[in-house]
Design a protein that fits this description.
single chain; 84 residues; mainly alpha; 3 helices; 0% strand
Length: 84
């Protein structure tokens, strides 16, 4: 009779333990999906802002930002790389 009680307690503990783990993992999956949706919305709005900012700066303005000394240094590095 005592072995039957031990088996019932073991099965009871097993089912409650596995049920708790299943519940925890299910909640974790939904929380991660919810966080993913939030990050995607934030990323989408950030990319829209980046596109708006990039339209304001044209290629000519970026070319003007590069001064003559930097151009000379870049050319020399390219020549050294191709020569090696």
């Amino acid at each position: 009779m005592e072995q039957v009680n031990l088996m019932v307690e073991a099965l009871n503990l097993t089912f409650f333990g596995m049920g708790f783990v299943f519940l925890f993992l299910t909640v974790t999956v939904f929380v991660i999906k919810f966080m993913s949706m939030i990050v995607q919305k934030i990323q989408k709005s950030a990319s829209v802002l980046a596109l708006d900012n990039s339209k304001e700066h044209s290629r000519d303005e970026m070319a003007d930002e590069l001064d003559e000394e930097a151009k000379f240094v870049i050319e020399q590095v390219i020549k050294m790389h191709r020569g090696a």
